[in-house]
Amino acid sequence: MMDHDKNKQQLILGVNMDLTERERAEEALRQSEHRQRAILDTIPDPAWLKDKDGRFITVNAAWCRFFGLDAETVLGKTAVAFLPAEVAAKFEEQDHGIMRSRQPLHCEELLTDKDGRLVWFETIKTPLYDDHGEVVGTSGLARDITERKIQEREIERLNRLYAALSELNQIIVRVKSREELLREVCRITTEKAGFQFAWIGCLEIETRRVIPIASTGSEQDYLDEIEVYADDRPEGRGPCGRCIRNNAVCVVNDFERDFSTAPWHTAAAKHGFRTSAALPIRFQGKVWGVLMAYDGEPDVIQDKEIALLEDASAAISLALDRLDRESQREQADEALRESEEKFRNLFNNAEVGMFRNRFDGSAMLDLNDKYLFILGRSREETVGKPSVVLWADPKDREEMSTTLKAKGHVDGLECRMIKKDGTIINCITSLRLYPEQGIIEGSIIDITERKRLEHSNSR
């Protein structure tokens, strides 16, 4: 182009480019990404895509809701920018493993959402490939399985409690002492029921303090750090105190947030206790003590578990009563043995003949050495043999029988008895009848010499 006024020449070079194809391509890409994002957002579970360096390419709405983040904050960044370091490190390790092995990963993992709630996920992570088959990133989909895990854990806990209750019912009929019973109850509570720690306390009536007397588990020093009461002071308002006062199972499913457990928050946190259960132990119908059980997870004891704990409480209480009855019976048996031993000593060493036989005279049941001496017989010749043959005069025995039937006893009856050699001796006998057993117990004295002297003096 010529500029005539200035007598100069200007040249303009123009390039005409057709941008239509590029604009169409960019629009198609935007629509593709929009469709891809729309599809991902329709998935109710968290889903995402990452590039080879772990940077998020896409996250869906469910992923953003779970972590409380918006997509613009996340895209182009790695997990370490907005997730806890240990979580980000675990994700990075998984991604590297998937890309290296070129194999999908199926796993269950526990994550914390934006509100601090723990959620179980069943996660599937797979490698991403380009058109040439090269790995360029990873994709992931996480399905919330918290409800399923809760049901599985509940079934597992119930099975453990059923097993514990079964073993408890076997143990309580075999133990021989209260100490053994309480020790076994604590052991079963931790080993079979799966609780982290268990102890049994006895109520001290005067002070209302609960004194630990048995325990088992990995946190034994917890008892050195706490005091528990059953009155209205702060240390008496927790599950243990309420259990004793109300005579009922008491459960705290979030120990560190329950105001009633405030006096023990520090000690419980140190030992990792999140749940506690208190079971009343009754003796002769009254609350005698309490079984305390602790778990490291919150919300693990619900209605079904409480019902089994109540069954366990009743079984332990019945065992205590049984042991007491057996102890009393053993004491009574021992007293009876001592009494019988004293009686046997008196029976055997008496200066008069002592005997026991059937009222109908069919058998001699027992006798002492003095009796055998008086009648000149051996034990083998007398025990088990009829006693009627020992009476010299049937009228004497008939008088004895009539008086016993009428009065139940005979005192100082003179009679004549026959010795083994046929000698007839004069005796005095006193007897008592036990009609229910049909047995006579009595004593006999040989007065033959006295009668001879009386007869001689009378001359």
TL;DR of this structure?
By secondary structure, the chain is an alpha+beta fold.
How do the strands and helices of this protein lay out in sequence?
Elements (H helix, E strand, L loop, with lengths): L1 E2 L4 E2 L10 H23 L4 E5 L4 E4 L1 H7 L3 H4 L10 H17 L3 E8 L5 E12 L5 E10 L1 H26 L6 H14 L5 E8 L4 E9 L21 H8 L3 E3 L12 H7 L3 E9 L2 E10 L7 H47 L3 E6 L5 E4 L1 H7 L3 H4 L11 H14 L1 E10 L5 E11 L4 E8 L1 H11 L1
Antiparallel strand pairs: 1-2, 3-4, 3-7, 5-6, 6-7, 8-9, 8-12, 10-11, 11-12, 13-14, 13-17, 15-16, 16-17
Could you please describe the fold and organization of this structure?
- The protein has three domains: 34-144, 2-Layer Sandwich (Beta-Lactamase); 153-326, 2-Layer Sandwich (Beta-Lactamase); 350-458, PAS domain (Beta-Lactamase, 2-Layer Sandwich), CATH 3.30.450.
- The protein has 13 helices and 17 strands.
- It has helices spanning 20-42, 61-67, 71-74, 85-101, 146-171, 178-191, 239-246, 265-271, 303-349, 369-375, 379-382, 394-407, 448-458; strands at residues 2-3, 8-9, 47-51, 56-59, 105-112, 118-129, 135-144, 197-204, 209-217, 250-252, 275-283, 286-295, 353-358, 364-367, 409-418, 424-434, 439-446.
- The strands form four sheets. The protein has a five-stranded antiparallel β-sheet, with helices on both faces. Strands 9-8-12-11-10 form a five-stranded antiparallel β-sheet, sandwiched between helices.
- The longest helix is centred in the last third of the chain and has 47 residues, at 303-349.
